[in-house]
Amino acid sequence: MIRLACLLALISLVPLVVFIFDLNGATATVFSFVGMPALGLALLIYFVERWRAGGFHEGPGTNQD
Amino acid sequence: MNPNLPLFAGPPAAHGIPWLAVLAIVATAAAAILLAWGLIRGRMPASLGSAAVLLPVAAYGLASVHMLEASKNVAFCGSCHVMTPIVKSLQANDGSLASIHYNRGLVPHESACFTCHSGYGIWGGVDAKIAGVMHMVRTATGRYELPLKLNGTFDIDSCLGCHAPSPAFRAVEAHQDPDLQKALLSHEISCTGTCHPAAHTESALTGGVPKT
Question: What share of chain B is helix, strand, coil (3-state, %, to 5)?
């Protein structure tokens, strides 16, 4: 799942780079409606995965180190 | 001298370094390295995980602020095909109120659309940004109709913000008429189309083709 989160976050960075170098309506639309949801989903998956691994529980959790 | 070349053009960053874009790229590059590492390894230590979360979020935050600023640009507005004829009409000096303002330098060339359509004051800018997002949604989904119409009423304070203090504007007899002022402020009538030319030509609002 961490791989999926990383992949989604990486995908979300592509529209950002394109948008920074070529700012127009199309790139801004992809940045807002593809990049942002992809990053949001990546963060959601990451936090769920960390929560399942005990990262947010009190006491000694299972760290993925 | 080539009349098509911009005046006072300098080397890159002659008018300042676009720090928002630069910082967004730096954060993106650092985030990409961390995320690629996480993708290959299939796990992420908590310390690196925090950085892998914060860096893309920071990059998106910086890029979003960059977008808010850069989307005021006329070229940005004209980059969506439905707006292209309006921007062309603006630059063509076709007698519309917008082109008169643009060609006489009465509005900033870089942000002419935003200047008139953002409304007056800080909330005018916020409203314009919300409207801009809705424009993107409608353009992406094809949910718009031609001829384009203003959503709601035009904020007359956008005109008055510049014109009201001007002695030449105040000296016009019609502008001193209390009934006319009341009618304008209550949006019963508009400056354009009655006393002043339409803001944009009909052909520009119909996507560059004459209305049938």
Answer: 55, 0, 40
The answer on B54 and B90 residing in a single domain is no
Put simply, whether the predicted model's pTM sits higher than 0.80 gets the answer: no
Give the pLDDT confidence score for residue B194 in this predicted structure.
Answer: 79
A33 to chain B: which residues are within 8 Å by CB? 136-137, 140
Q: Domain check: are B143 and B124 in the same one?
A: yes
Q: Which of B19, B25, B37, B44 to mutate to test the interface with A (most CBs of A within 10 A)?
A: B44
Residues B80 and B104 placed together within one structural domain of the fold = yes
Instruction: Quote the CA–CA distance of B60 and B77 in Å, as a whole number.
Output: 21
Residues B146 and B178 in one domain: yes
Candidates B46, B57, B79; nearest CB to A24: B79
Q: Does B54 lie in the same domain as B120?
A: no
What ipTM was estimated for this complex?
0.83
DSSP strands (E only) in chain A: none
